[in-house]
Amino acid sequence: MKLTQIDKVYGKKHVLKNVTLEFPAGKITVMVGPSGSGKSTILRSLNLLVTPESGQYDFNGHQIDFSQKLSSKEKLAIRRETGMVFQDYNLFPHKTVLNNVIEGPTQVLKMGRKQASELARELLAKVGMADYGDVYPNELSGGQAQRVAIARALAMKPQYLLLDEPTSALDPELELSVLKVLLQLAHEKQSMVLITHNMAFAKQIADKIVFIEEGQVIYDGGPEEFFSADNPNGRIKNFIASMT
Ligand code: ADP
Ligand code: MG
């Protein structure tokens, strides 16, 4: 998928300035940059939670022009293919873990409950949460809740998984349990776009790094060059140093 020359304005604030970025299928694109630089706005544009004022979006050859009104059919189709995982999990608190995971497949994909439950159990096993189907979210640690949120997103079988600082709320040992799941998904070639402040993990998992500053793409390339001591961009070097 690809965004071309997108602009987003909130009030008087020009939040995204002529952003052009490609997010290759089967790869892990990691977005980094200072707080408030526009990373979440880009991620939300991919999922159409945010609508840029102008620019184009190419999703598997389907072209969207943001200056035209989007149809709800278009929105739904793209939302299905871009599963979102948020920093604060956003699980349904009154539903068990299993019911959280089957919600999308049963309600949106109209899958039968039995089939959806089988799928959910498979996914919960994959994220190391097989024994927690009957538990409510408030009984889970943050790391466990986030793994359930990942299983829930995967239950819709999205082409892309979009993750907005999925481990920022977690202690290091709980963070590790989530990072392991992401590495496993990367190994399986799940397409992902990940925002993180964990530079060591970004270096480990990224096929491609994007550095955003003040709504602009400052770097778009391989992780080796980005993290190299020879990176000619002093601001990027300072940023990495400040984060590690
Ligand atoms: P990041 O994820 O890199 O921290 P964001 O994309 O969340 O940055 O935000 C970029 C800028 O847009 C920030 O200045 C933020 O305050 C502003 N912003 C984000 N969402 C909104 C909104 N819904 N209304 C007004 N301003 C917003
Ligand atoms: Mg953000």
Automatic annotation (TrEMBL):
Q: Topology in the membrane?
A: Peripheral membrane protein
Which keywords fit this entry according to its UniProt record?
Answer: ATP-binding, Cell membrane, Membrane, Nucleotide-binding, Transport
Cell compartments where the protein resides: Cell membrane
One term of GO molecular function: ATP binding
Check the record and name the SUPFAM superfamilies matching this protein: P-loop containing nucleoside triphosphate hydrolases
Do you know which Pfam families this protein is assigned to? Answer: ABC_tran
Ranges for the ABC transporter domain?
Answer: 1-239
The record, for InterPro entries, names: AAA+_ATPase, ABC_ATPase_HisP-typ, ABC_transporter-like_ATP-bd, ABC_transporter-like_CS, MetN_ABC_transporter-like, P-loop_NTPase
Looking at the record's lineage, which domain of life comes first? Bacteria
* Presence of keyword Membrane: yes
The main location is: membrane
What protein does this entry describe? Amino acid ABC transporter ATP-binding protein
Task: Supply the source organism's classification.
Answer: Bacteria, Bacillati, Bacillota, Bacilli, Lactobacillales
